[in-house]
Amino acid sequence: MIIRRAEFNECPELAKIKGEVWNTTYRGIYADEALDNYDIAKNTRIFEQIRNNSGIELVLAEVDGKIVGLMTCGNLYKPVEGFCQEVGLLYILKDYQRMGIGRRFLTVAAEIVRRNGHDRFLVSVNSRNQNAIRFYERMGGLEIPGNETQKRFCFDVSKE
Q1: CATH 3.40.630.30 for domain 2-156
Q2: Separation CA 74–CA 87 (nearest Å)
Q3: Among 54, 59, 86, which residue's Cα sits nearest to residue 70?
Q4: Residue 49 phi, psi dihedral angles, 5° rounding
Q5: Where are the beta strands (DSSP E) in 54-157?
């Protein structure tokens, strides 16, 4: 398994991975119409913007040369009081989950956050995504107030 910074030309592949993860994770949570109309071209442009944003790192996971997951880490997409850094996206293809990739992503996130001069980061997750919630709890995330649709977890990286 290799975790590395994504290249600009990999954004279309990352958009496809996000679409596949959304389809396997959020079916029954989000409207079928929204999932069925997932726009790869639009999401490619979003990933290109992220890749060009110096305040956010876009990293990917490769297994045997195949991109199987992605994560963004850095500045917040939307302000949350008391936080400057977040893991905004963390997607792993279903067949590659429970192989340690998510744990490795969070280790890389901690390194990024510390390098950025901060000691904690935020992760937000859909409140109906029980697998992700259990994962963040197992990884040591401290649940903090969210809202009806999102749970939030704080990861303290000051002691590592």
Answers
A1: yes
A2: 7
A3: 59
A4: -65, -45
A5: 56-63, 66-75, 85-92, 120-126, 142-144, 150-156
Taking only the tens place, the pLDDT of each residue in 68-101 is: 999 999 999 888 889 999 999 999 999 999 999 9
Residue 139 Rama label (left phi>0; alpha psi -120 to 50; beta): alpha
User: Full-prediction pTM beyond 0.70?
Assistant: yes
How do residues 30-56 score in pLDDT, each as one tens digit? Answer: 999 999 999 999 999 999 999 999 999
What's CA 77's distance to the chain center, in Å?
12
Sorted by where each begins, the domain ranges of the chain are: 2-156
